[in-house]
Design brief:
Elements: E1 3-7, H1 12-24, E2 29-32, H2 40-46, E3 54-57, E4 60-63, H3 65-75, H4 87-112, H5 119-129, H6 135-153, H7 161-170, H8 173-181
Parallel strand pairs: 1-2
Antiparallel strand pairs: 1-3, 3-4
Helix pairs in contact: 1-3, 4-6
Length: 183
């Protein structure tokens, strides 16, 4: 059965799907899609879904990286994407990483390198995010948010990122500021 990934190279979500396919050791075909709307071929394939990536296995289509991970794991259980039975943990980390961390990180990177992206891309992301994007300041404004989110991923014992958030609430404001700035 042919595995086809519909994606574009600048997408961090598509990179996650490419990494999953690589970890599974699967052979796959690549269909490069536009990074902004319109995406007529993708929308026709998915019945209206226009985000990246989309995995196609035969006539079946899977949208969203979590759903892609579920399907890859069901069809090709070894090697597993969730060693040690840590699927629940992976879901928690994915929820956090795909939410606050990705939004802050994406806006930071796009803002910092705005001259490398087409104006249509910026307009598309502003529409997607629901806010106008000040390209000259976006990277600098989002840096603090990105540092705060990455601070949550650190923990003293190194393998329980959810613990860092709980520990931060017990620290003083001064300790929290040092964590955010990396001091």
């Amino acid at each position: 059965m042919t595995v086809v990934l519909h994606h574009y190279w600048g997408s961090n979500y598509a990179e996650k799907a490419r990494l999953m396919l690589g970890l599974k050791g699967l052979e796959w075909e690549s269909v490069i899609i536009p990074d902004v709307m319109p995406k007529p071929d993708l929308v026709a394939l998915t019945g209206g879904y226009s985000k990246t990536p989309v995995l196609q296995i035969g006539a079946d289509v899977y949208c969203d990286t979590k759903r892609i991970a579920d399907e890859l794991e069901a069809r090709w259980p070894t090697p597993t994407l969730f060693p040690g039975g840590r699927r629940g943990f992976a879901d928690i980390v994915q929820y956090w990483a795909d939410g606050a961390m990705t939004l802050a990180g994406g806006r930071y990177l796009i803002g910092r390198s705005h001259e490398n992206w087409r104006p249509e891309f910026h307009a598309d992301r502003a529409k997607l995010w629901g806010v106008p994007v000040d390209l000259e300041r976006e990277g600098y404004r989002r840096a603090d948010s990105l540092r705060k989110d990455s601070c949550l991923a650190r923990s003293r014992d190194g393998d329980r990122p959810w613990q860092a958030h709980r520990d931060r609430r017990r620290k003083s404001a001064g300790d929290r500021a040092r964590c955010v700035t990396g001091e």
